[in-house]
Design goal:
The protein has 17 helices and 8 strands. It is α+β, with helices and mostly antiparallel strands and 447 residues long. The protein has 2 domains: 161 residues, Gyrase A, domain 2 (2-Layer Sandwich), CATH 3.30.1360; 166 residues, Gyrase A, domain 2 (2-Layer Sandwich). The strands form 2 sheets. The chain has a 4-stranded antiparallel sheet with strand order 1-2-4-3. α5 packs antiparallel against α14. The termini are far apart.
């Protein structure tokens, strides 16, 4: 059965220290008492006790400090744990755009997915749209089932579970669930941004988050009007002949190895920053001395953040689901674009299922073209469809990316993309990237 969204949100936990008081009241007292500790001689426990005894005064204090004086960081002391059910893959991408929150979602890699239970409200606006959605949803379920049934026999030779690649047939309307931990400051921004997106589902999500949060912490969720954001004017012929390279290095820090070495010397000895005066062999000795000390679970020194790299990447929605988790990077995703083609898993080709899959994709593209161009048409596209993404990161963050995404357990498409990124970065910073790679290869890489 398919029915209109019955998205459900429940706040299951909140910052809590005093067990016999309502959690919302207590959370507001925590933020207010931490704000007061900068100007009060009293012990924190005494400040908090006073805040708990006068809720209205506490709330007035929060409003004044956070919103009038502009000390918004006080709201970060309150952290909410939120269950979100019956949310589509498309809406999840907008929700998980936010950096300063933690998300764990139902995996399409490790579970067989039930596609029943959700129809975007936009698809109910006309008979034609509803008919179109039901048709492609039924087709998607049939293809997904066929791939799940026929791919398992290839498991010994490919080393991949069937649903790892069967999920490329799933639609962006496929419902999921996730757990989110978020502080009150980020939650307010999240509510504003979700409300500015032209999707009924994200606006419903925004309203539910606001309603639940304001009930518990009214003094910390105040300004929730949608963020003003209109599309810039696209110049004529701009980008019409752009390349379709899957991984393209756009910008990078010149002399990255010497820059990082100079940063290490400044950090340890307080020396002036003179990367141009460091001979390459000296830089090599400095960097290698630091990398030798690391274990597989160590971060590289912060000086590695001085080197930055920007890429244009064309990848599927499946691979983007992995990439978007590296939220400390700057990630600018374009919309899913059928003109960029689709990613066909190699296992489908080996199983002679690629033609069946291509026929399905052709039908999806046909219906998408009939439906659009509107934002909600993306619900009709699949995990296999590609988008163009600009991503920029420093070398310290890239080490973290390679540890996860080049490991033998990583999803194959994102592993291929990150491996290609590393091959390009290594040419610009061979010393500093000498230990980049998956966790499983760490001891082979270590010098």
């Amino acid at each position: 059965m398919i029915y209109k969204s019955n998205m459900n949100i429940e706040i299951i936990g909140i910052t809590s220290l005093v067990k016999d008081l309502k959690i919302g009241r207590e959370a507001e007292a925590i933020s207010a008492s931490y704000a007061r500790c900068s100007r009060s001689r009293e012990d924190l426990s005494e400040i908090r006790k006073n805040a708990l005894n006068d809720v209205e005064k506490t709330r007035d204090s929060n409003k004044k400090i956070v919103f009038e004086m502009g000390h918004s960081s006080i709201a970060e002391h309150v952290v909410l744990n939120i269950d979100i059910n019956q949310i589509s893959r498309l809406a999840i991408e907008h929700l998980e755009h936010h950096r300063l929150a933690s998300f764990t979602e139902k995996s399409q890699r490790y579970q067989k997915i039930d596609q029943n239970g959700f129809i975007p409200s936009e698809m109910l606006q006309t008979f034609e749209r509803e008919k179109r959605f039901h048709h492609i949803n039924k087709y998607s379920k049939a293809i997904y089932q066929e791939l799940n049934e026929k791919l398992p026999s290839l498991k010994p030779s490919l080393g991949d579970p069937s649903r790892e690649d069967a999920r490329y047939a799933l639609l962006m309307s496929t419902p999921s669930q996730l757990g989110m931990s978020v502080n009150a400051r980020t939650l307010e921004l999240m509510i504003k941004r979700l409300r500015s997106i032209d999707l009924a589902e994200t606006q419903l999500l925004s309203r539910q988050l606001e309603s639940k949060a304001k009930h518990l912490i009214p003094s910390l969720i105040r300004y929730t009007d949608p963020l003003p954001r209109t599309s810039p004017l696209l110049p004529s012929n701009y980008g019409k002949k752009s390349s379709v390279e899957k991984v393209k290095l756009l910008n990078f820090t010149e002399n990255a190895d010497q820059i990082i070495a100079a940063g290490l010397l400044s950090e340890f000895y307080g020396t002036p920053y003179y990367p141009d005066k460091l001979p390459y062999l000296t830089a090599e000795e400095i960097i290698i001395s630091q990398l030798r000390q690391l274990s597989p679970h160590c971060s590289v020194p912060r000086a590695f953040e001085l080197a930055n790299f920007t890429f244009e990447v064309i990848l599927s929605a499946s691979a983007f689901a992995q990439l978007k988790r590296h939220r400390l990077a700057t990630i600018l995703p374009g919309p899913l674009d059928p003109d960029l083609g689709v990613e066909i898993p190699p296992s489908l080709i080996k199983a002679n299922l690629d033609q069946v899959f291509i026929e399905y994709i052709n039908e999806v593209n046909k219906l998408w073209k009939e439906d659009g161009p509107v934002k909600s048409s993306s619900y009709l596209l699949t995990n296999a469809h590609r988008r163009r993404v600009i991503i920029s990161f420093n070398l310290r963050e890239f080490y973290h990316i390679t540890r996860l995404r080049m490991d033998k357990h990583a999803q194959w498409e994102i592993r291929n993309i990150v491996t290609e990124m590393l091959s390009l970065i290594n040419k610009k910073a061979p010393l500093s990237t000498s230990l980049c790679g998956g966790k499983d290869k760490f001891h082979e890489l270590k010098i």
